Inverse folding.
């Protein structure tokens, strides 16, 4: 188990050192934009560093939607980010599970996920493992509630897709953290990364607002228990800059028995 943080993409290795982080996650481009990632001058340093690297895909991507103007660019940009993530030695590319619009058939959105992996396979496959992350809100989401997650995995499990568990998203999405690792692994067979975040909002709120561990509405013991059970790399995506994230990393190291 290696513990780290989501940091600014300007200088991830310096940010990791400032937080005593063993794992680092960052965006390769504007998370709210559609521009393809550009080659990084520090790519070799990131590949060679004694720090595990993960990349988060932009939030705007939604390969599940029935809207062609969003789905097709999302599919192509996901592959572009996976290629760029491979260049920096990333162990995984995290992407949100996506959703369909109200009134649309979720089954069609799940099939669009299958088509995304089929499209990538035609291009030679994703060069970096894609890790689908559970999401906090939306009644038509593919990966908020675990019954829908099971339907999604039935459609795409053959493609060796990975999973990223976000504790804030699970809490806000209405999924209990007690025993969550066993429930997820019964569906996906794996957890490749944990986003260990507290939540500013109540259980089932559907709101994606992270907080520092022990400062929000989640019992930190439940987060620690999930971290222990998953035995996967951990990233905190919490506020407070380097100081706040250092404290969260230290809490997890102490209480997870490291």
């Amino acid at each position: 188990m290696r513990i780290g943080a989501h940091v600014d993409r300007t200088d991830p290795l310096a940010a990791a050192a400032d937080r005593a982080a063993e794992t680092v996650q960052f965006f390769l481009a504007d998370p709210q934009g559609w521009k393809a990632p550009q080659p990084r001058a520090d790519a070799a340093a990131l590949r060679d560093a004694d720090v595990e690297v993960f990349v988060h895909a932009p939030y705007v991507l939604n390969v599940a939607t029935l809207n062609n103007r969003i789905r097709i660019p999302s599919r192509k940009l996901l592959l572009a980010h996976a290629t760029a993530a491979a260049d920096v030695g990333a162990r995984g590319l995290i992407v949100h599970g996506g959703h369909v619009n109200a009134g649309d058939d979720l089954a069609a959105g799940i099939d669009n996920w299958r088509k995304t992996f089929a499209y990538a396979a035609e291009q030679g496959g994703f060069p970096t493992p894609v890790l689908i992350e559970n999401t906090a809100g939306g009644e038509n989401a593919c990966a908020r509630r675990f019954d829908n997650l099971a339907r999604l995995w039935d459609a795409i499990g053959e493609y060796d897709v990975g999973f990223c568990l976000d504790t804030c998203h699970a809490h806000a999405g209405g999924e209990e953290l007690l025993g969550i690792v066993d429930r997820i692994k019964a569906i996906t067979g794996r957890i490749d990364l944990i986003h260990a975040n507290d939540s500013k909002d109540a259980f089932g709120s559907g709101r994606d607002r992270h907080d520092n561990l022990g400062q929000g509405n989640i019992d930190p013991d439940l987060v620690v228990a999930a971290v222990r059970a998953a035995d996967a790399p951990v990233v905190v995506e919490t506020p407070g800059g380097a100081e706040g994230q250092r404290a969260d990393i230290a809490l997890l190291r102490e209480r997870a028995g490291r």
User: Anything to note?
Assistant: The two ends are 8 Å apart (CA to CA). DSSP finds nine helices and ten strands in the chain.
